[in-house]
Amino acid sequence: MKITKILSAAAAAVVAVSAVAVSASADFRPVTGGAEYCLADGTGNYGICLFSDGTNKDNVPAMSVDIDLSQVTHVAFTFDVIDDADNRDWWDGMGGGAIVVSAHSDKTSEDADLYNKYNWATAGNFWGVIDEDLGLETRDDTQGILAEKVGDYTYKIEADVINPVANGDIGNLSLYRIFMQAWSFTMSDIEVVKTELSDSNGNVLATFDALGNVTYGAGAAADETPAADDNTAADAATVDAEAPATTTNTEKGSPDTGVEGIAAVAGVAVVAAGAVVLSKKRK
Q: Which pairing describes strands 74-81 and 154-160: parallel, antiparallel, or unpaired?
């Protein structure tokens, strides 16, 4: 093990100690290319944008996934420990986060409660993995979401979707996104390689690759995407050819989501896991 690697690991642990109240997240690969549906940023958010009318406060361009949004009941994120240099050598299974929804309507006095209800609402938390091939049993089965191994250094998390459209709560929808949030993956970098949306019968409506390119499944019904209102339907059908600008979530850790409390625990886990990794000799 190079001394520079050891020093960098120690430095990471020190940083985590000084910021346990802040989300300690994995290094997500930036989304590049021309796909318009994916969003990712350095705070550990990776998500897909199902709908935007272009007027939301996060400045996400007008776009709409060509499915009936009210049929979306399930989301699955598949993530991979990036196979770069010795990145996988540091993987100890210590990592977790949540699946959250960010949906906005016009923020007026009439729908302020709905705005708060769906603004970074947590669908469930997850922590750790079970990987018999690597001898890892770090999964916390008391969490609402459990990571399952689906390949070498590759895992999948699934959750029921908090769907404001299906609930009929937001009539004038302006933005609807589903995110995987990573609060800590120790010193191993990860990337989301696939996102799947399904209906109540298990039919896959749409599949997104790592860059947000979409493939529609057999359950997709074209031209049934509900518009925010009659005035925005035409705009929603016109997809912006450019990828949306990287967004930074300034509201993550709000009292409504409970993210901040879990992030603090994750920060402590980073320090503990860092100490374990430093004392562990990889073959």
A: antiparallel
